[in-house]
C-alpha cells in the first residue's frame, strides 16, 4: 500500500485527502473504474490479458467493446478455451486499493454506505469512523455454479442467532447474513458454468443485472450493489445438463464466443506456457525437438476434426499440455534407465502418453466401436504423417524404403537407449544421413540423433511407405490382399498394441 494511503485511517482523513487533491481518490462505479483503467492501459500500450494467446483478433476486441459499453457479459465456449483465465485477468483492471469502512462485510463506500450497520456507525462516529483499504485481489469473487447452490448462498438469508444475540426482530436489517453477491459489492462477481445454476437461482439474478440491487427473503431490504457481473458457459450445457433461462440471457449485455487455437503456432505457444517442462533431473539436460512439439499439437488438431470424436464436447488444449508432460516423463524414464546424459523425447514417447490423451475426448458411435486407444493411435499416426510431410515433402527417402523392400527389418523398443537405436539404424542405408534435414548433425549427441531417426521411421510408417508390427517390427509396406479399401489399414493398425514400456517394434 502506498505510504500516502497508509496515513488515511478515518473518514475525515479521506475527506481531507480528496479535497486537497481532487481526482486523486475518485469515487466511481466498478464498471466505470474498469472502463477507465482499460482505456489507460490501451493508451499506454500495455498488455491487457497476459497469458491469453490466439485471441488478439477475435475475443479480445469483443471483450474490450463489452467493457467500454459497461456491459455484464458471458464467455461462451467449449472446455479448455481459457474462459476462467480471462475472467480472473479482469481483476488487473481494478484500482490497486479502494477505501472501505473498516470491518464492513460488503465493502461499503465510506461516503455512501448501503448496509444498516455502516449507516449506524457513520451516524454515531462521523469523521472518526475508521476505514480500511481493500486490495484488488480481494475484489474478485468467483463461484462455480452447481445444482446445489441456494438463493441464500448467492444473496443471503436471515440469521436467527444474530437476532437472538442482539435482541433484534427478525425483520431488522441487522439480522441479515449476506451471501456471495453482497460480499462482492464494489468488485467483480464471476459465475463459472452458469447453465448448471438452478433456474430459480438464475431468476434471483434478475434484479442485480437490471436494477443493481438485491432483496433478501421477503423483508423490505434493498441493497443497491455496485457490481460487474461476468459469466462462463459451455454450449453443450444448453442441451445436456441445464440451460440459461431466456430472461437472464436477455439481461446479459454481451455474449462473447471463445474458440480453440486457430494455428499450430498459437497452440505451441499455449502449451509451452502451460506445460511443466522444467524437469530437475540431476546431471541431465532436457531438449525437446521442435517436431515432437508439433506432433503433440497436431494430435489435438486431428482430434477436433475427426468424425469419430464428439465435436459438441470439444477437445481441450489440455490434451496437448498433459500429453507433452507425459512424453517428457517417458523420455526421462528411458534416460535414467540407460544412464544417458540428456533427456530427448521421441515420437514413440507420444504413443506411450496414451493415458493423457484418451480421457480428453468423447467418442461418437463409430469411435466407441473402434475403442479410445485405437482412435488415439490413429490420431497420432495422422499427426506424424502431417508433420513429416511438411519437413520431408521434397526429400528423397527411397533408399531407406528400398532397404526394407529388399527384406530388411529393424527391431527397436521405446526403451532402447540412444546408442542401441543408432546401432540398429546404421544398418539401414541412408537412414542416419536423413537426420540432417531436421537440423540435427553428428555433433548433436546420440539422444538427439536417436530421436530424429525415430521420427523418420515413424513418419515413413505413418505415410504407409513401410509397415510396423509387434512381432516383426518395421518392415516393407505390404500390399492389400483384399479388395476392401481398408484392407491395408486394417493389416497395419487393427489390434496393434503401442510400443510402450519396453515392447519391441519392428520396421521392414
Structural class comes to alpha/beta
Beta-strand share of residues: 5-15%
Radius of gyration: 30 Å
Largest sheet: 5 strands, parallel
* Mean of all residue-level pLDDT scores: 85
Do you know the CATH architecture of the largest domain?
Answer: 3-Layer(aba) Sandwich
Integer count of domains = 2
> What is the CATH level 1 assignment of the largest domain?
Alpha Beta
Number of helices: 22
Strand order across the largest sheet: 4-7-10-1-11
Shape: elongated
Terminal-residue CA separation = 69 Å
Instruction: Report the uncertain regions.
Output: 481-500
Helix % is 40-55%
Write the layout of secondary structure elements.
Blueprint: H1 3-6, H2 11-20, H3 30-44, H4 59-68, E1 73-76, H5 83-89, E2 97-101, H6 116-125, E3 131-135, E4 140-144, H7 151-154, E5 156-158, H8 160-166, E6 176-178, H9 180-183, E7 187-192, H10 199-203, H11 206-210, E8 213-215, E9 222-224, E10 227-233, H12 246-251, E11 254-257, H13 264-274, E12 285-286, H14 290-305, H15 318-338, E13 342-343, H16 348-352, H17 365-370, H18 372-392, H19 398-405, E14 410-413, H20 418-425, H21 446-462, E15 466-469, E16 473-476, H22 487-493, E17 504-507
Parallel strand pairs: 1-10, 1-11, 4-7, 7-10, 12-13
Antiparallel strand pairs: 2-3, 5-6, 8-9, 14-17, 15-16, 15-17
Helix pairs in contact: 13-14, 13-15, 14-15, 14-18, 18-21, 20-21
